[in-house]
Design brief:
The chain is an alpha+beta fold. The protein has 6 helices and 6 strands; from the N terminus they run ααβββαβαββαα.
């Protein structure tokens, strides 16, 4: 009887050790998944570098823009899911393609990182839609881009200050 209790106790202790190992393994897997998600986020944001290190085209909000005072507001739209966004195009050709060839007249080409440094609008719209209605149409969070490209944005704004002085 004592031997069978000892055997049962040994099996219980050994199985508890396996549970601890399994729990540690599960924690490790969750950590790896979180790290992979962080890498994916970084990789997702990094793909926007090629867009914002170049010139982009945005649409000016005619009501809120006063070029004499350098007050600029960007045109915003609301999509079918009621999300307000600022359209950003990678070229003038992409604007024409998106609008079906219609020239809107409020297009403005500017440096991508300088655009990111600007406040989006009085409403603080924080969603950008890159090349709306085209095959490479994508949404991105403006605040995430500002955080990710903070060094580049700071460098561009400093270059601009030097050129103005």
């Amino acid at each position: 009887m004592k031997k069978s209790l000892l055997v049962l106790a040994s099996i219980f202790v050994l199985s508890c050790g396996d549970n601890k190992k399994e729990a540690a393994k599960t924690d490790h897997q969750e950590t790896e998944i979180n790290n992979m998600n962080k890498e994916n986020t970084v990789n997702e944001l990094e793909k926007f570098r090629v867009i914002f290190e170049n010139k982009i085209v945005v649409l000016l909000d005619k009501k809120g823009t006063n070029l004499k005072t350098n007050a600029v507001s960007f045109q915003t739209y609301i999509n079918e899911k009621n999300i307000e966004f600022i359209p950003v195009f990678t070229s003038n050709d992409k604007v024409l393609e998106s609008t079906g060839g219609v020239v809107l007249g409020n297009e403005m080409e500017l440096d991508g990182f300088l655009f990111l440094s600007q406040s989006s609008s009085a409403k603080e719209v924080n969603v950008l839609r890159i090349n709306p209605a085209l095959s490479d149409d994508t949404y991105v969070d403006l605040n995430e881009l500002k955080k990710y490209f903070a060094k580049e944005i700071k460098q561009k704004t400093e270059e601009l200050k030097i050129n103005i002085e």
